[in-house]
Automatic annotation (TrEMBL):
Organism: Aegilops tauschii subsp. strangulata (Goatgrass)
Protein name: Vacuolar protein sorting-associated protein 13 VPS13 adaptor binding domain-containing protein
Pfam families with a match to the protein in the record: VPS13_VAB
GO BP, sorted A to Z: protein retention in Golgi apparatus; protein targeting to vacuole
InterPro entries: VPS13, VPS13_VAB
Chain ranges of the Vacuolar protein sorting-associated protein 13 VPS13 adaptor binding domain: 3-306
Length: 517
C-alpha cells in the first residue's frame, strides 16, 4: 500500500525555507533559524536546501519565508497555481540596499509506476548564471551594486544570482507623481546585470536583462591608462585591449539560466570594414563615450557597448568634418557619406582633436571625400558596414562576370519504386510499385562574383502504378501525347543565391512553376 499526500514540496534553491499554512500564526523571531523547532506536520514543514517534504496541512494556501534569516513572506495558493510563477523574499538585515532572494515555482507530476493524484511543488532559484568560459567572471546588478565587486563565478561553474532591492526614489513634484501613476508597473520588475572578467584592467559590460530570452553580445574594454607588467597600452595588441562574450538567456523549467561564454562560439553580429586607401575612421555607438579607430584597408568585428543606448553607429572620417549616423541593422545599398546639406558647409580645417599625425591628405582627397560612401550588407548572420569610395563607372558594378559554368541534359530517365516486402532471392525480378519517367531534363548553373544562378527544367513527367488492386490508375501525367516541338515544361525551378563563404545560404531570388494538363 502506497500513501501519497496531495502535494509534495521540493526545494532545489540555496536557501532553507519555512513553509506553513497561510492562516497559521508566524513563528516567534527568536525561533527563526533553529533546526529543532517543534513544528507538527499538520502545521507545515522546514525545507532545507536540496530536500523534499510532504505537505500534510489541509490548507492549500502556502506561506513561505526564509528559515535562517529575517525577511518578508510570500503567499501562494496551490489550487490557483497553473504553469509556473515567481516570488521574491526580501532579507531584512543591516546591509543596504536589502538583498532579495528570487524563486520560481511550478507543479510537477509525481514519477511513480501508477497514476496518482499527487503533485510536486518544485521551488527553484529564479536566476542562475552558468559560466562556460575558461576564466572566472564577476556579476553585479545595475544601478544597485555600482560600487560593489559583485558575485564571482569560477570557470565551468554555476551560481545563483542574488538580486538587490533598489532604494525608493522620492518624487520631487506632482509631475513625477503623475508619471508614476500612469507608467507600466512591470518596468520596475526588470532586473539588469553586468559582467566583468576577473582579469586586471577590464571594465564592466553593458546591461543585460535577466528575463529577456535570447542571445546577447557584450564587450569588455581595458582601461586606457592601464600599465600591465611595464607594457603600455600602445605596445599591446588591439585584440587584448577589448574582449567579446555572449550570453544566452534560456528558460529551464522555471529558472532563467544565463549561459556566459567568452569568447563567443558564434560569429559576432557586426563587422566594420574600412576600404579607404589613406583615411582612417573613428566609430562609436550613439550616446556612448567609448570609441574605436580603424586604419585604412582594415576591418574589425563589432558588438554594441550598451544595448540600452540607441542602436546607431556614428562614423567619422579622421581629420575631416565628415560625420554620419548609420543604422547597421538594416541592409542598405551604397549611399554617399555626406548628405547634401553637409556638403554646403564642409570645412577641412576642422579637427576637433581627432587629427592623426601619421595621416596626411593631398589636395585631391578633399574632392574624393564627396565620392566616399557606405553600404550595409549581410554575410551570413553578420551585418557588415563597409566604408568605401564610389566606383568611377557606377554601371560597372552591375556587370557580373561569370567564374564557372556547368550544364547537363538528360533525354530520358526512369525510376522504379520496388516493394520492400519482396526478396530478390525469392523472385528473379522484384515487384515494382510505382514507375516514374522523366523526359528532357535540363540543368544550367552559372557562378559569378556576386551570385550563383541555377535553372532546372523538366519537360515531361509520368508516374504510374504497377501493382494489382491499386485504387488509382495514374498518379501524374504530363505532355504524354504532345509533340517534341512544344517548349512548355511541367516543372521549372530558378534560384539565385548570393555568393558567400558562410554556411548560411542567402536566397536572392527563387521561382518554382508547376503546370500540368
Amino acid at each position: 500500500v502506497a500513501l501519497f499526500t496531495r502535494y509534495t514540496l521540493q526545494n532545489t534553491s540555496d536557501y532553507p525555507l519555512l513553509c506553513t499554512a497561510s492562516g497559521q500564526k508566524p513563528l516567534p523571531a527568536f525561533e527563526i533559524g533553529k533546526d529543532n523547532i517543534n513544528l507538527p506536520p499538520q502545521n507545515g514543514c522546514i525545507l532545507p536546501s536540496m530536500s523534499m517534504s510532504s505537505w500534510f496541512t489541509k490548507s492549500n494556501k502556502l506561506r513561505i519565508s526564509l528559515h535562517d534569516e529575517k525577511g518578508s513572506e510570500a503567499f501562494i495558493d496551490l489550487e490557483a497555481l497553473s504553469g509556473f510563477t515567481e516570488f521574491f523574499l526580501e532579507i531584512h538585515d543591516d546591509i543596504f540596499p536589502h538583498r532579495m532572494a528570487a524563486f520560481g515555482m511550478s507543479l510537477q507530476p509525481v514519477i511513480y509506476g501508477l497514476h496518482v493524484s499527487s503533485q510536486v511543488v518544485l521551488i527553484v532559484p529564479r536566476y542562475v548564471i552558468s559560466n562556460e568560459s575558461a576564466t572566472a567572471v564577476a556579476v553585479r546588478q545595475c544601478l544597485v551594486q555600482d560600487d560593489i565587486d559583485g558575485l564571482t563565478i569560477e570557470a565551468k561553474q554555476r551560481g545563483t544570482l542574488q538580486t538587490w532591492k533598489p532604494g525608493k526614489k522620492r518624487e520631487g513634484n506632482y509631475f513625477d507623481l503623475f508619471l508614476k501613476k500612469h507608467k507600466n508597473v512591470s518596468e520596475d520588475s526588470l532586473i539588469f546585470i553586468q559582467f566583468c572578467p576577473k582579469e586586471t584592467g577590464y571594465g564592466w559590460s553593458g546591461p543585460i536583462c535577466v528575463s529577456s530570452i535570447g542571445r546577447f553580445f557584450m564587450k569588455f574594454r581595458r582601461s586606457e591608462d592601464m600599465v600591465i607588467d611595464g607594457i603600455n597600452k600602445d605596445t599591446l595588441q588591439d585584440g587584448k585591449l577589448k574582449q567579446f562574450a555572449s550570453v544566452d538567456v534560456v528558460q529551464e523549467n522555471t529558472s532563467f539560466v544565463l549561459h556566459f561564454t567568452k569568447p563567443p562560439k558564434v560569429a559576432l553580429p557586426y563587422r566594420v570594414e574600412n576600404c579607404l586607401n589613406k583615411a582612417s575612421i573613428m566609430y562609436f555607438q550613439k550616446d556612448s563615450d567609448e570609441s574605436d579607430m580603424l586604419g585604412p584597408q582594415e576591418s574589425e568585428q563589432y558588438a554594441w557597448d550598451d544595448s540600452s543606448l540607441p542602436r546607431k553607429l556614428v562614423v567619422r572620417i579622421v581629420d575631416t568634418p565628415a560625420l554620419r549616423e548609420i543604422k547597421i541593422d538594416k541592409i542598405s545599398p551604397w549611399k554617399p557619406f555626406l548628405k547634401m546639406r553637409s556638403r554646403l558647409n564642409l570645412d577641412f580645417s576642422f579637427s576637433n582633436g581627432l587629427s592623426s599625425e601619421k595621416q596626411g591628405f593631398d589636395d585631391s582627397f578633399e574632392l574624393r571625400v564627396f565620392k566616399i560612401g557606405y553600404e550595409v550588407y549581410a554575410d551570413g548572420l553578420t551585418r557588415v558596414l563597409r566604408i568605401c569610395e564610389q566606383a568611377e563607372n557606377p554601371k560597372a558594378e552591375k556587370i557580373q562576370r561569370p567564374i564557372a559554368h556547368a550544364q547537363f541534359r538528360i533525354s530520358y530517365m526512369c525510376i522504379h519504386l520496388l516493394d520492400k516486402g519482396q526478396s530478390d532471392e525469392m523472385l528473379q525480378s522484384p515487384s515494382t510499385i510505382l514507375m516514374a519517367t522523366f523526359q528532357r531534363v535540363s540543368a544550367d548553373s552559372v557562378i559569378t562574383d556576386r551570385h550563383k544562378n541555377m535553372d532546372v527544367a523538366v519537360y515531361s513527367v509520368n508516374v504510374d502504378e504497377k501493382w494489382d488492386g491499386a485504387s488509382f490508375g495514374s498518379v501524374f501525367r504530363m505532355n504524354k501525347l504532345q509533340g517534341d516541338a512544344l517548349n512548355e515544361n511541367i516543372l521549372r525551378i530558378v534560384c539565385v543565391l548570393n555568393s558567400s563563404n558562410s554556411s548560411v545560404k542567402q536566397v536572392h531570388y527563387c521561382s518554382i512553376i508547376l503546370q500540368a494538363d
